[in-house]
């Protein structure tokens, strides 16, 4: 007997025997549903035998037989009727459990998100991606085969999506491209650190999506529910189907606020804030301005996160503001980092440590935020230092800046495009999917071992565009991405440590040292961040003008 739990009240199993019934009852099940027709296999017990044994054990039993490979709409309806009549928890079985898992997926389609259904069945060992279109259609058999077709479909209209669309249009103006994204507003997220530091207005970091989609590119304002890569199809919410010749996947990542107990309820109140949200960054500056004494906590979750320097940027700008106001001596700054180092590229650490000392900030490594009690102003951290048993510590605070845990979006994690960790699985040089040759990915959602920053997407977009154009022409990949990422670390108002690096932490400075030494705090780097980079983002990167971002030619290894 092999029990595979899909939900707390519903479990599936491959074929059970009469001898298994007492053990099933002992597990606490109240009912059994048989989804395997009698006589399908020579060695299977009949439902009559299973039903008799179930009744003897005090269990209910229902017979909802489904032909293998043919789950009809009326089967789903009969399954729903059985569920309505039976007590929970219950066990459903067929030959392998697949039909039972499929019936549950279709039955739940009207009340659960697609990603939740795919995730639950995947965890139980059943891949429902093959019937995702029907799940999206509320469990009923869809009648369409595709509502639209484009040469290139791009998932996500963030920095990566709009940039690659613009880069493709600049190379092939006649290319039929669609961008799929449900959002009305596009945000310049690198600017939120400056909003939280009282330098930018929040409004300056937002523009309407419609004003940024490149001319001639179709905008499909919808959310993606699932992928059918073997059919070159994307399934949208509501079961609309978009077909493609080539697909680019760049929806960004998911800020998983709910992973920290109590955090969502207290965000924007009780001194708890985050520069990772547009509406909260102004609250960060409000708290900094109001604070005269007490403890300020700045948190960083386990990697990967977007812009790995952002949690400490908030700390430095806050510390600088308190230093300038003369109240720093009365404020206890604590940096709580789930990782074991201040910054992942060691060349920049000495300059950062100077500011840690200037602001007298406590560094607490291997501290991961697990819960927040906002009204009590207490935060609990799980401490997992190497070679020691995990412990928990609770710290009081007056202000807390939180960087939330981050994952790939749900619809990506449960898709055939994802690796074991849930990120889109690409070749780190060409950014082409490792299994599906007409799919590429860039930005925060793919699994190349680079920093997740807008500067990285600025270099990735032309690489993907070059390789797609080459593929359309019947050629192999021509461009490669070298892992470039940039993190302008705002150590004080007016100075920045401009970290620029590629794969393996290799330094990749954009300027000679005599112009700008990125390992030291400089006013030149601040000028870039405050004055130069925003217009480069809006007027160059999102318009396909690849200033200082020309693709690198693919190096061919000769054996």
TrEMBL record:
Q: Which domain of life is it from?
A: Bacteria
Q: Where would I find the FAD/NAD(P)-binding domain in this sequence?
A: 151-267
Question: What keywords were assigned to this record?
Answer: FAD, Flavoprotein, Oxidoreductase, Quinone, Transit peptide
Does the keyword section mention Repeat? no
Q: Locate the transmembrane regions by residue number.
A: none
User: Where does the record place the Beta-lactamase hydrolase-like protein phosphatase-like domain?
Assistant: 3-109
**What InterPro entries does this protein map onto?**
BLH_phosphatase-like, FAD/NAD-bd_sf, FAD/NAD-binding_dom, Prot-tyrosine_phosphatase-like, Sulphide_quinone_reductase
| Cofactor(s) in the UniProt record | FAD
What processes does the entry annotate via GO biological process terms?
Answer: sulfide oxidation, using sulfide:quinone oxidoreductase
Which molecular-function annotations from GO does this UniProt entry contain? FAD binding; hydrolase activity; quinone binding; sulfide:quinone oxidoreductase activity
**Gene3D superfamilies, per this entry?**
FAD/NAD(P)-binding domain, Protein tyrosine phosphatase superfamily
Return the NCBIfam families for the record. Answer: TIGR01244 family sulfur transferase (TIGR01244)
Protein name in UniProt: NAD(FAD)-dependent dehydrogenase
> What is the organism field in this record?
Ruegeria profundi
